[in-house]
């Protein structure tokens, strides 16, 4: 009791200081990699950009509906190959420079030219972007593509100030002159903190708090302690699931849960032995125990997933098989393995990028596979920067990855994975001309029923070829002090600091 009171009064003192200062303090175990839209392709870096920059379109608050932002409207007079965007005339960068069609075209062309990680979202569909006049932008597509407007909702399409971002290389610092959204960056000390302050040139509603300080923590345990001690107002990514449920039960802080489009999956390098044998991949698909991962590791704060297209999105269907150990053993025998001559594999994970639960996930997977009596799995790991190199150069044959959507469309859960280009960039090295054509055709039609028919075939083929194995779909969580209001866990996974108030 004495210890609880000490924690309470310490929290009260610190919290009162924060409240009086008008500062929102957020804690996270995530990290920022880079704040250049042309290169940025991890969740947390993108989410910072979503609070300090805007694009031609944006998502309506709390929904997956795209609405105009920098563009007041657009038209396509030739049936979807050429688009004209009409730019609002009151938009400014944070140094006061106007944002016109020229800056937007320059930024889009720069991102395509530099060809960073997210550039494929533009290069796959855009032939060229150019300013017709000061506030009219023209974008010509290679072919009509119904996902085009959705792609513009991702940060790779955000304009940057040419006075700050170099044309021929990526920008690795904190932008000071390029904010176009509710906040601008005042300070960034890598892996320690980033400070956002109100952008005086933002044309929209003012942020609820004028300053946001985001503090980076090493692990979920210290993140929880910081929240309980009153050092932070909000904990977002990644509290340990058990800690989250414990705090929810205690009621000392407010907890939030929401649907999430985040998915987690296994990648198979289909060119690397023994995973070049589809029977091995199918056997593993039957052997994994998704429910055990959900129950043991995430204590119910996740859902088993049987498609790469998440639940709740149109065209989703449970295409991958449920667990069947006998079927797994049958396929392993067909592949030439037995109890006396087992399949020996390495299972890779990265220990911190996805939070503190990843080693537990790997252990449950190992146990599930070895229950066949015909698989011996060795767990290996590498930190995120090394991990990326390993899957890009084909070092790993079987490894864990996760996905947050670039745009809310089934295409974003299929094309980046099983197109020939996607197979290279995500480490499966999968390539199939039939699949490439299916993906192309699925982007040509505006009718959802027609597109769904294509995605039915695509999901069926993914299940047959198994370059990836979906495991679970996440549940978004956050926790906050009692007098924090306005936290919204959106279906787009955008976490908007500017709508939070104390």
How would you summarize this macromolecular structure in one to three sentences?
This protein has helices at 2-21, 43-52, 101-114, 120-123, 148-151, 220-228, 241-250, 278-287, 290-297, 325-334, 358-370, 384-392, 415-418, 420-425, 433-442, 448-465, and strands at 23-28, 57-59, 66-68, 71-75, 82-87, 126-133, 136-141, 183-189, 193-198, 211-216, 234-235, 254-268, 302-304, 343-349, 375-381, 398-403, 468-480. By secondary structure, it is of the alpha+beta class.
Structural summary, described in words:
The chain has helices spanning 2-21, 43-52, 101-114, 120-123, 148-151, 220-228, 241-250, 278-287, 290-297, 325-334, 358-370, 384-392, 415-418, 420-425, 433-442, 448-465; strands at residues 23-28, 57-59, 66-68, 71-75, 82-87, 126-133, 136-141, 183-189, 193-198, 211-216, 234-235, 254-268, 302-304, 343-349, 375-381, 398-403, 468-480. It is an alpha+beta fold. It folds into three domains: 2-29 and 182-253 and 481-499, Periplasmic binding protein-like II (D-Maltodextrin-Binding Protein, domain 2), CATH 3.40.190; 43-157, Dipeptide-binding Protein, domain 1, CATH 3.90.76; 259-475, Dipeptide-binding Protein, domain 3 (Roll). β6 and β7 form a beta hairpin. α8 packs antiparallel against α10 and α15 (433-442) packs antiparallel against α16. The radius of gyration is 24 Å and the shape is globular. Mean pLDDT is 94; it is low at 1-20.
